[in-house]
Amino acid sequence: MEICLGEHMVTKIFSSESVTEGHPDKICDQISDAVLDAILKEDPKGRVAIETLVTTGTVIVAGEVTTKTYVDVQKVVRETLQGIGYTNPEYGMDSKDCGVLTSIHEQSPNIAVGVDEKKEHEQGAGDQGMMFGYACSETPQLMPLPIMLAHAITRRLSEVRKGKVLPWLRPDGKSQVSVEYVDGMPKRVATVVVAAQHDPSVPEATVRKEVIEKVVKPACGRWLDAKTNYFVNGTGIFVVGGPEGDTGVTGRKIIVDTYGGMGRHGGGCFCVGGGSLVNTENGLAPIRELSSLRQGALIKTDISPTPVGEWLDNGEMEVLEIETDDGYSLEGTPNQAIRVIDAQGNYVWRSADELQPSDYLAIQRKNRLFGQGKRIEFEFLHKPSTHRKNIFSFPEKLTEDYAYLLGLLIGDGRCTSRDGAQVCVCEKEMEETVQALFKRLFGREGKVFGHWAHFCGVELRAYLEALGLGYWRSWQKHVPESVLGAPKPMVAAFLQGLLDTDGTVRLSGRNGNFADIKLTTTSRELALGVQQLLLSFGIVSRIQPVQATGKVSHIRGRLVRSARPLYHLRIKGSDGVEIFRKEIGFRLTRKAKILESAKPDSEHVRLLIPHQRERLKRLWGKLGSREHQKDTANVGRLLRDPSDRGTKELTYGKLAEFLDAYEDLLKGDIDFEYLRTYYVMSHYYAQVRTIRKKHAHVYDFTVPGAHTFTANGFVCHNSGKDPSKMDRSAAYMARYIAKNVVAAGLASRCEVQISYCIGVAKPTSVYVDTFGTGKVPDDKIEQAVEKVFPLKPAEIIAHLNLLRPIYKKTAAYGHFGRDEPEFTWEKTDKAAELKKQAGI
């Protein structure tokens, strides 16, 4: 909120929230970190990534651990709950008799290879991504004032409860503090909101008065004034809380844990919409239907297929629907972290609500997983005395012929029919193809009425329904469930049937030899589903909506007026066309001949790695004049000013030439290795077209090891971790750096970003932003930071002494702005050296 006062003064109100240690999500954080502490106490080299879920009377602990010690998880859980204050069944959780379920296994060896330190291998990062640190001069702790006051209130709620000052308080609680800023400086607290769980016998007025007098005023002190607004338990009473009121999950309070929203964050716990298609070893499936996916099943990530942990149902939430310019779409909570390439050309996490126009979102097109095909549960009972004209024998799993039939019916069939299968056969070859299919499946041909080929049988239609074919109108069609979970040959057969009927192929392009393959449908859901099936083959496609409502067409002598918009789905790039030709293709001879006559066209290789020109320029500058003259990889055109007919972006083909040409000269250079990583990942990158707010039921996975999964092709972060996980140790180092920058007087505000590649020790980037408050240029501070601070994983862990059982303390009331000796990242012992390096 912003208010203009007079000609120059600008007033802004900024709010931050905190929660007590008894909040359901904070219970989970404390349990996860208590397990971590128990392991580090006996085995400092242990690898730990634990996630916890709590609900009424039940605690679930899952994740991966590699350790030489034994930890009694049940005991750790119960002691943690007792310490918080959950000692009464009336609170919905009793430490003595609650259920504790565990599912813990060993860390993925694929991750350990890059993370473990050996004589011949320097310890690499335990995850890839970016971490932020922030500091400012608003408080003695060099933290933003709103989050420090919010923490002070929730900590005070716990103190007066445990100290029996307010004995009727219960463990759950929240606070929100809104601070008024004038010209960037905090002046007063405008509003305080407190939710304090209490016994049912205490009057509402008593709760309000006592909380304000004995909690808020001691916590906020001089920042309060006569105009401050107070809201205590806005709904009147707050008796049912904790895990009984809400399910808790590890990592959902990352804004509370860091800077209260004032500074950015990396890592965290997130959710995607229930319809998001997730790629697993069982094929594609909406995430809402994956509750029965076994723990340890392979799931697609941006690294390699990785065993999955827990499936989480997080209820109804506000989400952002993100749609790219090529029609890829995802629903996610505002804090859902998604992989992007930013304007600097770096591969970073970006929360959905912080996406920038210059960001390109990563779409995963490798590590293709297809299903094994589920057994079809089907039984059909005819009415007594029914005359059966056709006797059917149906397979227990989807076959290629039935998959092709499903494609024909969804492409140009009459799905509303209840007495068999009807396919439109407007041309002779299509009629012959369909009749041959009927003969293979049912032993004889069907009947043709006008332009419809029909094979009768209510039993047949019921079986098709069991395969996932609903009684849909054209705009309601989507990919059947049996196809989503089918093996590769059946998926290919379905796509053949769909494109034989409702697809087109023609030669286009500058040279007239590029195969333009297009599907046209009135169902957006079908287009999105087919887009994901193609992505499973590594084929990128574009969905283009066309407003065809009211359009008049002449079809076989009839006047037809369109009542729906159309969606054109086109295969993008000649490499996608080549994959389609080899692995899918057409069954109709006419279309197959056109496809075979097409030739790869370099003009249509449009899959790019954006924003890499500056990185290439840096590498080019290291090669020397002789290599510049040779220009073996022909990168000169790319490095010219794009307004001077230079190529704007780097293609995968050009990148392959560059890597091959300069491997011996540039191997080991951080920019060169960054480009090599891009080539190995081979993602497709698309820009955001629209972002819309809506509400949806959301879900999440824990994915120990990778901490990512793909949803609708997007690379998404999933929901305590050991210090080798860089979203913990590097976040501490980033805070350490930012705090020392402010303590040194180099700036009054400072944000630091450090990014890493999994398995690589040296950070891929270090970025400093002082928001215009710097006494010296930001790039000079960056140079000083890289000289003063140790930034490799092993160095960070050693310097901050992170292999200690210190993490349970961090799990409530914030990781930053703390005075306890365990919080080594809060020291300002590098300020003097920073000033010297910066020349002050």
For this entry, give a set of tags.
disordered N terminus; 7-stranded antiparallel beta sheet; 5-stranded mixed beta sheet; 24 helices; alpha+beta; 840 residues; single chain; 31% helix
User: What is the gyration radius calculated from CA atoms?
Assistant: 30 Å
Helix count from the secondary structure assignment = 24
From the N-terminal CA to the C-terminal CA, the straight-line distance is: 37 Å
Sequence stretches where pLDDT stays below 50 over 5 or more residues: 1-8, 108-121, 720-724
What does the oligomeric state look like here? single chain
Number of strands: 38
What can be said about the biggest beta sheet?
7 strands, antiparallel
